[in-house]
Amino acid sequence: MYKLLIVEDERLIRQRLVYGIDFTELDCVVIGEARDGKEGSDMIQELSPDIVLTDINMPVMTAFDMLEQTISHTYSTIILSGYNEFSNAQKAIKFGVTEFVVKPFKESDIVEAIQRAKEQVDEQRYLKHLQKSETMEHTAIYNLPKAAFEDPIVGEMIDYVHTHFSKKIIFGDVAKEIGYSPALLHDKFKKETQTTFNDYLNRYRINQSIQMLRKEDKKLYDIACDCGFSEYKYYNKVFKKYVGISTKEFLDKL
């Protein structure tokens, strides 16, 4: 069961969120409702939700201030924003925002966002498990949306990875597709993400393979191939580099 906190200053929208969605079907329970960011911050610290669904602009304290005040707590965040607030909402990426849902929204938009937020919660839980068992020094799950990046060219590169990760990717082909020199793209990507394109690609592929390992009854070499690795041995080597354990050890812990 996933604990969900709803932070929304407009009463009708808050009630629509609380009572208009079948959270039981989503394996979620609403543990609290907050009318502003200050109440939301207090509830996050008191109730330790798994997922926080919040509006951006609220009285007393905005969502940005609430996220900053509770940055030491681990939870997945879904932001509700108007069209004119969306570019502003991108600033919340640094606080680990999972999803942006633009108003006016449909219930199906919220359901889809919660499903993706649950996946992030699962990843957070597993990473905590690994850290407690001291099997991993550090790993990062890179799964940011294209709109999360200030430089649209970097966003295009991210989008290319998310779309083509299952195929063989050569950086020169990416540059040709986007229409800029490899050197320029390399510098822009490194500047904004603090990592290289190949590192991001490998981390994203490993992240996708983890989702498949959890959800699909496939052979390991098929999963490796589906995630863009031509050889299982190389896939397992990369997996261990980023996750800290082999795929077999990972499966034993599921």
UniProtKB/TrEMBL annotation:
Residue ranges occupied by any HTH araC/xylS-type domain in the UniProt entry: 155-253
Chain positions found as 4-aspartylphosphate: D55
Every Response regulatory domain range: 3-118
GO molecular function, one term: DNA-binding transcription factor activity
Alphabetized SUPFAM superfamilies for the sequence: CheY-like, Homeodomain-like
GO biological process: phosphorelay signal transduction system
CDD domains the record matches: REC_YesN-like
GO cellular component term of the entry, any: cytoplasm
Compartment(s): Cytoplasm
Keyword tags: Cytoplasm, DNA-binding, Phosphoprotein, Transcription, Transcription regulation, Two-component regulatory system
Domain of life: Bacteria
UniProt cross-references to PANTHER family, sorted A to Z: HISTIDINE KINASE-RELATED (PTHR42713), TRANSCRIPTIONAL REGULATORY PROTEIN HPTR (PTHR42713:SF3)
Name of the protein in question: Two-component system, response regulator YesN
